[in-house]
């Protein structure tokens, strides 16, 4: 049975730009009630105003999702504002570019904090609210790079593989509670993501060629939520890479190695 999003109570991270911002707007157009977060409060304030103009309830809390106290405050706020929660969207994410040998532990730890530990721990404390939600769901924004590793992106790849593995484990664990767990695996998407790298040691070798819009990723995500899908790949180029890698892993390995040596 489809999930209706009108009046659904949604908590969304990383809403100040890119996919998160477009997701907030797409959900607001469906009449979902929203609580969203990110660090840049002024961007969240104007997004909340846009959502309210679309006729829905929109609140925000600004803060760093890697801070356990902030995560607890977000869940408290969802409890107070909504008296429950139907959908949690773990979207906030960061990356870094450069060779592993030239990178450092701080970069790896920061990426794992934002992309893996924060969504996992936010989900843990959201579960009591979700268990009493209406057709509850958790949506994790992963990546094509959670299915296939590529050079110059080792820390990010590791964080998204970890997120995917945990998502699959959680889906089975929560099925008995009626909580759906959806993984979104976008390919390159036109957002500010590449301007927010926490480290950039060298030029991004693949650029933004073949990027799709954040609005397209958001619309496909919302539809997947309505149709109760388990996983989607919004970008067909990225999906083609994942399929090729499943069928011909050695060939893809060789192609990626050759390509990275040419950079
Ligand atoms: N763009 C792509 O090509 C692509 C491809 C595949 C997957 N993705 C994934 O899509 C998701 C959204 O990224 P995007 O492309 O929309 O990039 P974006 O425009 O840079 O958005 C990232 C969001 O995460 C928030 N964020 C980052 N660090 C945070 C922190 N420590 N605490 C709280 N919020 C934080 C940012 O807000 P503040 O800076 O205001 O805190 C921003 O709202 C990420 O999980 C990313 O890995 C992106």
Protein architecture, described:
The protein has helices at 18-29, 41-53, 68-82, 105-131, 154-175, 214-226, 236-247, 249-261, and strands at 9-12, 33-38, 58-62, 87-90, 137-141, 180-184, 189-190, 212-213, 231-232. The protein is α/β, with parallel strands linked by helices. It has a single domain, classed as NAD(P)-binding Rossmann-like Domain (Rossmann fold, 3-Layer(aba) Sandwich). The strands form 2 sheets. Strands 3-2-1-4-5-6-9 form a 7-stranded parallel β-sheet, with helices on both faces. α3 (68-82) packs parallel to α4. The longest helix has 27 residues, at 105-131. The mean pLDDT is 95. Residues 14-20, 38-40, 64-66, 91-94, 114, 141, 143, 186, 188-189, 191-193, 196, 214 line the site of NADP nicotinamide-adenine-dinucleotide phosphate (NAP). The site of NADP nicotinamide-adenine-dinucleotide phosphate has 28 residues, from α1.
CATH topology: Rossmann fold
Low-confidence stretches: none
Instruction: Summarize model confidence as the mean pLDDT.
Output: 95
Order of helices and strands: EHEHEHEHEHEEEHEHH
Number of helices: 8
Level-1 CATH class name = Alpha Beta
Number of strands: 9
Strand content: 5-15%
Small molecules in complex: NADP nicotinamide-adenine-dinucleotide phosphate
């Amino acid at each position: 049975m489809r999930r209706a999003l009108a009046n659904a109570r949604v908590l969304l991270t990383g809403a100040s730009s890119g996919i998160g911002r477009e997701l907030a707007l797409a959900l607001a157009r469906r009449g979902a009630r929203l609580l969203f977060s990110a660090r840049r409060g002024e961007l969240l304030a104007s997004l909340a105003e846009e959502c309210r103009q679309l006729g829905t309830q929109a609140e925000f809390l600004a803060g760093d999702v890697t801070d356990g106290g902030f995560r607890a405050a977000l869940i408290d706020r969802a409890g107070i504002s909504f008296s429950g929660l139907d959908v949690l969207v773990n979207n906030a994410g960061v990356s870094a570019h450069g060779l592993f040998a030239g990178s450092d532990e701080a970069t790896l730890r920061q990426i794992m904090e934002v992309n893996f530990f924060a969504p996992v721990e936010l989900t843990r404390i959201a579960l009591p609210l979700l268990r009493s939600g209406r057709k509850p769901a958790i949506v994790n924004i992963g990546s094509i790079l959670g299915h296939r590793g590529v050079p110059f992106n080792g820390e990010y790849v590791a964080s998204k593989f970890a997120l995917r593995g945990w998502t699959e484990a959680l889906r089975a664990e929560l099925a008995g509670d009626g909580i759906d767990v959806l993984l979104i695996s976008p390919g390159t998407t036109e957002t500010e993501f590449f301007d927010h790298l926490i480290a950039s040691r060298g030029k991004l070798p693949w650029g933004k060629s073949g990027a799709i819009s954040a609005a397209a990723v958001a619309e496909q995500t919302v539809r997947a939520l309505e149709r109760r899908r388990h996983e989607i790949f919004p970008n067909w180029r990225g999906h083609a890479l994942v399929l090729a890698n499943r069928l011909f892993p050695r060939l893809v390995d060789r192609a990626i190695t050759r390509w990275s040596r040419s950079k």
